[in-house]
Structure formats: C-alpha cells, structure tokens
Amino acid sequence: MSTPGGNSQRDAAWLYELCVTRFGFAMMFTAYSGVLPLLRADWNLSAGEAGLIQSAWHLGYLVSLFVAGFLSDHFGARRTFLAGNLLAAASAMLFALFTDGFVSALLLHGLLGLCSGSSYTPGLTLISERFSSQVRGRAMGFYLAAASLGYAVALLLGGALVTSIGWRGVFVVTACGPLAAACLSFHALRRTPNVVHPAPAAIGIGPSLLEVLRNRPAMRMIWAYVFHSWELLGMWAWLPAFLAISAAAGGDVTAQAVGLGAVLSAITYGASMAGSIAGGSLSDRWGRTAVILAMSCASLACSFAFGWMLSWPLWLLLVVAIIYNVTAIGDSSVYSTAITELVPPRYIGAAYSIRSVLGFGAGAVSPWTFGLVFDWARGAPLNSEAWAWGLAWTSLGVGALLGPLVTLRLRRMPEAKQMAGGKR
After folding, report:
1. At what angle do helices 402-411 and 288-306 cross, to 10 degrees?
2. Where do the structural domains in the chain lie, given as residue ranges?
3. Which of 93, 122, 222, 343 has the smallest number of CB atoms closer than 10 Å to its CB?
C-alpha cells in the first residue's frame, strides 16, 4: 500500500492504466440511454417500458456487484476483476448484435448488467489495497471520473454516428470499449498481487453480512449511498432523452435531435469528471461527510427544479445539467472511500455487496418509477407534457431526500472520526 513519500510515479502509472480499463467498460452504460428516443419509436415503447429496460440493467448490475464483492473477499480482488471483465466484454457484444425489441432488450440489457460489476467493486478494492487513507479519496475520485469519461465518449460517438450507422451500429461501436478494456486489464494488473485477507476463523457469507449489518456507522453510510443512487442513476437514465426532447423544441424527435441530446449529455458527463476528482480530493482535506452534505444538497435542488425547465433555452438548460451532473456524482467516490475506513479489511467486499444490492436496487427502481410518473402525468387528468417531465424529475428528488439526514446522523457518531484521518 502506498503512503506519502512512496513510489508515487509507479502508483500513478498503475492508477492510470486501471482508470483506462474503467473508461472502456463504462462505454456500454450510456449506449441505450443515448439512443432511447429512437428506440421508443422503432420498438413502440411506452416510457414505463423504456425505463424498465434501463432498470433491468441496474437489477443485473446489483446482483453482479453483490457476487463480485464476496468473490473479492474469498478469492482476491485481482482475480475477480480479471475473470469478470471477460464476461462483461462478451455480454456487451451480445447486447449490441442481438437486441431487437422490448423483450430481447430487457433480457440482454439485464444480462449486460449482470456481467458488468467486476470492474467496479473489485476495482475499488484494488485501489484501497494500494493507496493509504490520506490519498485514497482522490484515487477513487479518478477511478470514478474515468467512468464518467467513458459515459461521455460513448454519448459523443453515438451522437456523431447515429444518423449514419443507426442505433445498432452505435451499440456495436460502444461494445468495442469493454472488449478492449478486458484485454488491457491483464496488462494493467500484471504485477499486482492477488490479496486475500485471512479470516479470523472459518467464516461464510452469512456471518460476513451480519458483521457489516451490525456496524451502525457503516450502515448509515450505506443508506446514504442508497438515496444518492436513486437520484444519480435515475438522472443518468433519462438525461439524454430529456435534452433530445428539448432540442426538438416541440417538433418530432428526429435522429438529429437525438444526436444533439447525446452530445449535450456527453458534455455534462465530461464536466462531471471534475466533480468526481474534486469530491474525492476535498473529502481527503475537509472530511467525508462535509463533502457528501454539500454535494447532495446541491444535487437535490437540481432534481426538484430541472424537469420544469424543458422550455428554457437549450444553452441554459445545458448549464444547469452540468451543475446537476457534477454535484450528483461529486460525492460518489466519497461513499466508496468512507466504507473502507468504517469496515475492517476482511469485510470490505461484504460491505460493498450490501451497498450494491441496496444502492443499485434503488437505482433499478428509479428509472422505471420516472417512466411511470411520466406516463401518468401525460395522461388524464393532467394531459401535460410539461407536467409529466416536471413531476418525473421531481420523483428523483423525493427519493433522495433522506440522504443528507442520514449523513448528518453519521457525522455526529464518535466512529465518524475513523474517516479521513479524524476529519469525519
């Protein structure tokens, strides 16, 4: 594990290569949402069905994260990372080549999520094993920022290519990201040891879960992450479609409008990289809970306001979307870092598993709920597109309201001093 004064150049090179792999795997995350308006037209999808396809990915993802966490504890994060990445690459290409309607998209998008968790929690565990707590928040911030860059590049490619190669061509191009990342991951971790923390006694999944569930500070951090995930994953699922509708300015949503919505969304994802890096770095300096409170309150304000801005000038809507994305993701790395400081090393994988089931469970329901609220508000008695978008985005804020309150309760606990060298 690195410490201040250690081999910083070697650590930086290692982190860079790991971040490049995360960038590649992240490209498939936004492939579906980037062309969603076209898919709704081609497949005759309701908003609820469109949201359900996105939710299928999150449902599969939470299962994969749960399994990956325990595999990391019992077989090592490096081994889990490499084996799972091969499955992610294969499932990405299956989705790109064979999805052709609601049922196939629901199943194959869910399978893609089911195979995608190995690049996330095992990657975070690898970072926690290598970097000390004084710089761990920044390192995890870079890792999450790499994912944001992957989301952005996938949307840029989709926006630029969708008019010439169609949505399936976009899927195939973005599926090349996980394929390349799976190959690179073996090179990136060629000298990284596979660490398996020894158990104090023979211990199974049940006792590991109980150990984390009894850890009150860790569970409060996990619950704060759950409410955060509801907002963030719902926002990511629907932002490109919302910007495409705004770009159409009340007319038909053409491929050009979808492309513009994808490009504008990509700009917000690119800007959110700064949020990930700044959030992690500031939490090393000011404390974990202070940064979580600042970011979550700012993103909540955006959730309650954003949907009512549909008729705003597109450039102004983009500015608000950038602020929204930066603040919504700005505390993501902080939750991941804080878990490593509140849970003994042997149980970090179990803690990430519980966090993943609860957090991505909320994230699986959130896009679907968004779509259901939208369908309801657009029908009788409201019959309003503006109210539909406004209330749908508001549902994200309502689901995230408890996050800052749980964080405040954690901040007041004496165990909070274990985070960020006593800065809470």
Report:
1. 170
2. 8-191+204-422
3. 93
